[in-house]
Amino acid sequence: MAEEVLGREAASGLVKQLRETFGSGKSRSLEWRESQLKSLLKFVTDCEQDIIDALLSDLSKPPFESVVHEDINATTVRFKRCPTLTIKERALIAMLKNSCKLALKELKRWMAPEKAKTSITTFPSSAEIVSEPFGVVLIISAWNYPFLLSLDPVVGAIAAGNAVVLKPSEVSPASSSLLAKLLTEYLDTSCVRVVEGAVAETTALLQQKWDKICYTGNGRVGRIVMEAAAKHLTPVLLELGGKSPVVVDSGINLQVATRRIIAGKWGCNNGQACISPDYIITTKDFAPKLVDSLKEELEKFYGKNPLESKDLSRIVNSNHFARLTKLLDDEKVSGKIIHGGEKNQADLKFAPTILLDVPRDSLIMSEEIFGPLLPIITVDKVEESFDIINSGTKPLAAYLFTSNEKLKKQFVLTVSAGGVVVNDTSIHLAVETLPFGGVGESGMGAYHGKFSFDAFSHKKAVFYRSFVGDAAIRYPPYTKGKLRLLKALIGGSIWGIIRALFGRS
């Protein structure tokens, strides 16, 4: 059954129980790790309809997005408020399922000690790097992708051999309840627990000593998490957000670029995604063409009345709806709307909205939008965009559309971001061989694939020596000859060692 909400004392007891189980060594074995990863994979397969229903309840998420982003393995899915949808495009990576499969395939190799070189100074010797679990870890997930952002870190934590507490977001209550109810049926509750609740429960959890904390969300709460972790010197993995820019150059395939911007912005939870394009920078000359293309493609995708489209997620709750409305009502930008702006508060529906030439000191440009609003800033030369991006905080993602090879190299070298994508948006999240994480205020640490295993593992240095080869040089009395030889050994020069042995400097 699901975990009950808990206070500080109950949280302390929970951590104590998990620490005792971890201390027994149960979660360290390859067999246990593999069994839990297989159970996670089975959970996603068995409960696909339950997951889709939860996402529909929390976010009114289109079924295609559920399949692609949350990894539901279905070809035909039926919905309470949606018609039957046949999914044909299965070429897209089902990220959560692939995370489990990759971990199962590579786990033995990941767990194997990594050989390390030694030097002549310590001859004869050998060394290796051993990946050991941190211990008992806390994962606090986000509401916008409640299954992917909850379970993808859990895959890494389990693969690394940790005991885990998962705290799903209360902002997605149906998803949180489902995780709490069903994961206990699939996973070993002596090592993996789910805690529901809101601020009080999260606070109680953060008051405990953990061996690592992973938090996905915004920078404000990220600071609270980091402050709590600092009291126990607990390492943190913070996946935050920021204002992810899209730089659009001229001389490109405009229709393809526009479609990919739309897919990354409105096709990702209606802009409610940490890697969603936050604003566009393009030249004054090219802006009219880009705007016309955006309008045309948006109408193709979502119709003349996007508020009626079944392919747009709703805003998660009334608080976020009010926040987005406030951004649009700002007197500095209210007259800058050139497309969209329609909204329905009763249904929490917000149409794709484009704003042109918004002031950089406006409210919409001072915080992460996290919604369907897309401001466009114009410059004389596309290269000016680099200074605009770098003048703000470092984003989680930065996107560039160009056919200019020199501009591509300059963008990659100049713009600091968690990840950079050229000629697409958001797609890097699905590449398991790339780390996913932020830099600066967009986060610290990274996960996905092997990076998830590494994120929840301590890389322990192990050094082996025999009793032979014991040199008097390291022991008193210290002489000039010993010093010369020691310097030569540290320097690693064979000729230097020979000269030192013969008493030459």
CATH top level of the largest domain is: Alpha Beta
How many strands in all? 22
Range of helix content? 25-40%
Pick out the low-confidence regions: 68-93
What is the CA–CA distance across the termini?
A: 75 Å
Report the mean per-residue pLDDT as an integer: 89
Stated plainly, the CATH topology of the largest domain is called: Aldehyde Dehydrogenase, Chain A, domain 1
Write down the overall geometry. Answer: globular
Structural class call reads: alpha/beta
- How would a textbook summarize the main sheet? 7 strands, mixed
Strand order of the largest sheet: 12-15-16-11-10-17-18
GO molecular function, one term: aldehyde dehydrogenase (NAD+) activity
Pfam families: Aldedh
Protein name: Aldehyde dehydrogenase
InterPro entries: Ald_DH/histidinol_DH (IPR016161), Ald_DH_C (IPR016163), Ald_DH_CS_GLU (IPR029510), Ald_DH_N (IPR016162), Aldehyde_DH_dom (IPR015590), Aldehyde_DH_NAD(P) (IPR012394)
Explain the overall architecture:
This protein has 505 residues and is of the alpha/beta class. It is 39% helix and 18% strand. It is built from 17 helices and 22 strands. It has helices spanning 8-23, 30-46, 48-59, 63-69, 95-111, 148-159, 173-186, 199-206, 219-230, 254-265, 287-302, 318-329, 384-390, 405-414, 450-455, 480-491, 494-501; strands at 76-77, 85-86, 114-116, 125-133, 136-140, 163-167, 192-194, 212-216, 236-239, 245-248, 279-283, 337-339, 343-344, 349-350, 353-356, 373-379, 397-401, 419-422, 436-437, 443-444, 446-447, 457-465. The strands form six sheets. The chain has a seven-stranded mixed beta sheet with strand order 12-15-16-11-10-17-18, with helices on both faces. A six-stranded mixed beta sheet has the order 7-6-5-8-9-20, sandwiched between helices. The protein has a three-stranded antiparallel beta sheet with strand order 3-4-22. Helix 2 (30-46) packs antiparallel against helix 5, helix 3 (48-59) runs antiparallel to helix 7 (173-186) and helix 16 runs antiparallel to helix 17 (494-501). The radius of gyration is 27 Å and the shape is globular.
